[in-house]
């Protein structure tokens, strides 16, 4: 079976890997000149089931409203009154209801757990060094949090099979001595020992190399412009080919679109993909003072900022802006990330050598990815992973490959299907 995968971000690469592992011939196309140049390029680095949760959650509406009056708030919404944005916001609002959130969170956590298992399968097959941490991750609480909230979260994680414990400030300081100097007011932290961090782009590039070594074909600087569908002929209801800029036309048995936030635009008029881009920022800086640098990767709950150790560098990430497809860097936002790290770990990083980046998270209203068949028999999508795509990548890639090949999946494919599209087998 020959499968074309459009998109060489982490989702396209993991899909190609698992398809190839099950005997398919793969061709991967990307409009960029190499792998991981979209949202997978410089993301926060957390591969974490414990930190991942849908953003459409109870309380999110109040937080979003308050943030409109605070320029430095992590969340920003610039209304553009387009049908796409309004529809997405209204659908997201519906998903904030407690019962909707509970179901969405469980589907998302299940995918993250499966992804960890599938990551181990990738690591067993291919030797990949991607600055992986092995000490778990921390979620820091600066302010006191109600015991019921912490207990409720820990109970949820336990039910799902995700190990986690709450640490007092003294216990956190023992693990992270530098924090004791900068954040004496810390309340405590959630420690997730089974979760990890690592460089998603390095992982993706090395996985692409491994697929290529086994005969996988990659076409760079090849934007797909048109999906050619047979609506009424002998192969009605199927994709016949895809046409790329420059005149290249590619035929295959099946086509997977792992085109991230671009997916609704690429498949416009063919499949309605309910997702919207959520812009985020990151800073990557070399560490210069190891004594004062963080040893663990951690997420600061108060500022909603991630700080991941990637070898001798620090990746600081955060901010969620609903501003359409505008990927320009705003200097004030870059300074905000830089200042958040400096406050926590003064002088630990060489901020003059920092690089900044923005990426568009492909976000669905319910926060659950779409790893799915479509109305067309040989067209599939693997997208909509929002702010947790690295954490779900290997699970989504494996699930997608199984759906494409024979529908025999390890987890319930219907949990990640497009509305109205059922997965026939299990
Ligand atoms: C600031 C930030 C921090 C984040 N932090 C984390 C984190 O800590 N942990 C986590 O789990 N997730 C995180 N994420 C989310 C994660 O990065 C994304 O969910 C994930 O990278 C999405 O991967 P993807 O392959 O679907 O999309 P992308 O990486 O965007 O890949 C899509 C690819 O499709 C290609 N493409 C698009 N259209 C076409 C076309 N017409 N023709 C050919 N090619 C096309 C693009 O060039 C691109 O290479 C973060 C995201 C951001 C922005």
Set out the fold topology:
Elements: E1 2-6, H1 10-21, E2 25-29, E3 46-47, H2 60-67, E4 75-77, H3 83-94, H4 98-125, E5 137-141, H5 147-160, E6 165-168, H6 169-175, H7 177-182, E7 188-192, E8 196-197, H8 200-213, E9 217-219, E10 224-230, E11 238-244, E12 249-250, E13 254-257, H9 263-266, E14 276-286, E15 297-300, E16 305-310, E17 313-322, H10 331-344, E18 355-363, E19 370-373, E20 379-383, H11 389-405
Parallel strand pairs: 1-2, 1-13, 2-9, 4-17, 5-15, 13-20
Antiparallel strand pairs: 3-8, 5-7, 6-7, 10-11, 11-12, 14-17, 14-18, 15-16, 16-17, 19-20
The protein binds flavin-adenine dinucleotide (FAD).
Residues 6-12, 29-32, 37-40, 43-46, 223-224, 258-260, 262, 266, 280-282, 306, 317, 359, 361-362, 383, 385-391 line the site of flavin-adenine dinucleotide (FAD).
């Amino acid at each position: 079976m020959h499968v074309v995968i459009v998109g060489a971000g982490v989702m396209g690469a993991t899909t190609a890997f698992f398809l190839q592992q099950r005997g398919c011939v793969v061709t991967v196309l990307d409009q960029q000149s190499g792998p991981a140049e979209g949202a997978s390029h410089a993301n926060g680095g957390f591969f974490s089931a414990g930190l991942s949760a849908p953003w459409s959650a109870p309380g999110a509406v109040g937080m979003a409203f308050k943030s409109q009056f605070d320029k430095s708030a992590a969340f920003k919404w610039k209304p553009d009154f387009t049908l796409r944005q309004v529809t997405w916001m209204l659908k997201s609002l519906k998903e904030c209801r407690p019962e909707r959130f509970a179901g969405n969170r469980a589907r998302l956590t299940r995918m993250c757990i499966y992804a960890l298992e599938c990551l181990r399968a990738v690591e067993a097959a291919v030797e990949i060094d991607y600055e992986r941490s092995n000490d778990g991750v921390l979620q820091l609480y600066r302010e006191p949090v109600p015991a019921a909230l912490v207990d409720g979260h820990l109970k949820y994680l336990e039910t799902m099979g995700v190990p986690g414990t709450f640490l007092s400030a003294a216990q956190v300081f023992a693990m992270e001595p530098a924090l004791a100097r900068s954040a004496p007011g810390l309340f405590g932290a959630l420690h997730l020992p089974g979760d990890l961090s690592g460089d998603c782009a390095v992982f993706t590039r090395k996985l692409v190399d491994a697929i290529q070594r086994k005969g996988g074909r990659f076409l760079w600087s090849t934007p797909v412009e048109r999906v050619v569908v047979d609506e009424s002929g002998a192969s009605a209801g199927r994709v016949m080919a895809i046409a790329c800029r420059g005149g290249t036309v590619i035929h295959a048995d099946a086509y997977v679109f792992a085109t991230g936030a671009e997916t609704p635009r690429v498949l416009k008029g063919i499949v309605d993909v309910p997702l919207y881009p959520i812009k985020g920022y990151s800073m990557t800086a070399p560490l210069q003072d190891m004594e004062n640098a963080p040893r663990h990767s951690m997420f600061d709950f108060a500022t909603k900022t991630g700080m991941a150790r990637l070898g001798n560098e620090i990746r600081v990430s955060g901010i969620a802006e609903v501003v359409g497809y505008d990927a320009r860097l705003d200097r004030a936002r870059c300074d905000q990330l830089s200042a958040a790290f400096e406050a926590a770990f003064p002088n630990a990083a060489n901020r003059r050598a920092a690089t900044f980046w923005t990426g568009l998270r492909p976000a669905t209203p319910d926060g659950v990815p779409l790893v799915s068949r479509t109305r067309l028999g040989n067209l599939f999508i693997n997208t909509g992973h929002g702010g947790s795509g690295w954490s779900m990548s290997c699970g989504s890639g494996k699930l997608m490959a199984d759906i494409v090949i024979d529908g025999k999946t390890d987890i319930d494919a219907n949990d990640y299907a497009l509305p109205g599209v059922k997965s026939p087998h299990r």
